Amino acid sequence: MFVSLFLLGLCAFFILQLKPPRPKNFPPGPPSLPLLGNLLHLNLENPLKDFERLRASYGNVYSLFIGSKPAVVINGFEAMKEAIVVKATDFAGRPQDLFINDVTQRKGVVMVDYGPMWREHRRFTLKTLRNFGLGKKSMEDRILEEIQHTVKTLEKNSGQTLSPQVMFHNAASNIICQVLFGKRYKYDDQTIKLIVRCFAEMTKIANGPWAMLYDSIPLIRHLPLPFNKAFENMEIFLSHARCLVNEHKKTRVSGEPRDFVDCYLDELENKNDESMFSEEQLRRISFDLYVAATDTTSNTLLTAFLYLMNYPHIQEQCQQEIDQVLEGKDRVTFEDRLSMPYMQAVIHEIQRLANTVPLSAFHCTTKDTDLMGYSIPKGTMIIQNLNSVLREEGQWTFPHEFNPENFLNEQGEFVKPEAFMPFSAGPRMCLGEGLARMELFLITVTLLRKFSFIWPEEAGKPDFTPVFGVTLTPKPYTMKVKLRSNH
Ligand code: HEM
């Protein structure tokens, strides 16, 4: 009996030693448990409400332990700006010990740590995306071409009700495929179906409790548990990317790039000894760009049409502006946004409420630093609660309503408050912002010009609460579509 009690006491002592220490002057936070940290404080299916609750108790900058790893959660515009804009490079790292780092092998661009590899690839990608505006087939042409397929789908369904999920997903997926590989896939193509299934599975695992357990308890990482499926799916994508790159190598003309892969192959041809460009990096960055571009854009479009159907007076006001500005023109251009302040305000308001990437991508401090008076050691994981900025009282005239006036001044001109951060800000800010904004504008305007979208009577009251994930998705809904009388 005495021996058992002694052993139990010894175990308790060692477990308590595993309880992570709180660094000096670290932001406050809830008490944590050995091994698990604060996992029990969070609903792993959707922690957003917990983050708000903890903010109410501990303030705009507080700490949590993900297993034994300390993390700081940043809330509200003031703290967010100080961290990612003012002290930009201090907060520009990415954590390197997560499930997602193992799946991506610390390559690509999104989860690569702050350093030369990331900088070279970010710079190259931004330049390449920008140059498509000047190339033979501009970004705008690629997007407008794809929209015609969406228009055809809607025309076929005019007068009827349809589920828009797959349609918007296909549009976003094909646009980024056009940019990366110069090709689009038919909606029933078996290869793209396989790739889409792989991504869906990977996202589900990365969003779910298995990834959280993988991050928190390193001991389980080599066990045959469901997270291994993500590694298999990654291999499927990489071998598909290898085929596409090989095809490009056979057909490309050096110095005359047709798409992102050709631009990268040109770069490889001219690379110097220190360059960090490689074919493996090309496959990995294609993965990153495809993933980063698809669900984000299609979920924002889904949110757009959910709101536009349920606020028909706003939909009509958009249509009036579109009809007026585009009168006599056969198609919209991105330039037209400058004459459409109301449409711009509506799209921005949709992005504000869609809060598509609610916790951004996790950051990490690159050196010992401080924030709002607290000390944060190098290597601390940083979680940006973007929702807390996008709906912050004091930053918006109507923080809790769908109201385009959040982006209009008294003269009816479009204005963009600094707290508009759906793409984050600072050096790690979304590098596809330009492409995403072009897609959202061209797609929404083209569709609203041609069709009216009606919330089906039988659908009952709309539910605007999204489903949580790395990206927020509106709950599945249906839409009734009607060709407008002037079309
Ligand atoms: C509505 C659509 C989109 C939204 C809301 C969105 C949002 C975001 C956010 C919040 C981040 C994290 C930024 C940070 O860590 O501070 C991010 C990163 C990123 N996004 Fe987007 N994104 C969208 C579309 C796109 C598109 C179309 C592309 C592809 C070209 C793209 C490529 C990337 C990349 C590569 C990063 C990582 C940047 C880095 O680590 O340097 N995104 N995005």
Relevant terms:
3-stranded antiparallel beta sheet; Cytochrome P450 2F2-like; Cytochrome p450; alpha+beta; monooxygenase; heme; 487 residues; oxidoreductase; Cyt_P450_sf
Order of helices and strands: HHEEHHHHEHHHHHHHHEEEEHHEE
Roughly what percent helix?
Answer: 40-55%
Large-scale geometry: globular
Widest beta sheet: strand line-up:
1-2-7-4
CATH class: Mainly Alpha
The radius of gyration over CA amounts to 24 Å
Subcellular location: Membrane
Main location: membrane
Organism: Poecilia latipinna (sailfin molly)
Binding site for heme: 430
If you had to describe this structure to a student in words, what would you say it looks like?
The chain has a four-stranded mixed sheet. The model is unreliable at 5-17 (pLDDT under 50). Helix 10 packs across helix 12, helix 12 packs across helix 14 and helix 12 runs parallel beside helix 16. The chain is built from 16 helices and nine strands. It has a single domain (19-483), classed as Cytochrome P450 (Cytochrome p450). It is globular and about 70 Å long. The chain starts with a helix and ends with a strand. Helix content is 49%, strand content 7%. With 487 residues, it is α+β, with helices and mostly antiparallel strands. Strand 1 and strand 2 form a beta hairpin. The protein has helices spanning 2-17, 48-58, 77-86, 99-104, 116-131, 139-156, 165-181, 190-207, 209-216, 228-251, 260-269, 279-310, 312-326, 341-354, 387-390, 433-450; strands at residues 61-66, 69-74, 161-162, 363-364, 369-371, 374-376, 381-384, 451-454, 479-483. The protein binds protoporphyrin IX containing FE. Residues 1-17 form the signal peptide. It is found in: Membrane. One of its GO terms (cellular component) is cytoplasm. One of its GO terms (biological process) is xenobiotic metabolic process.
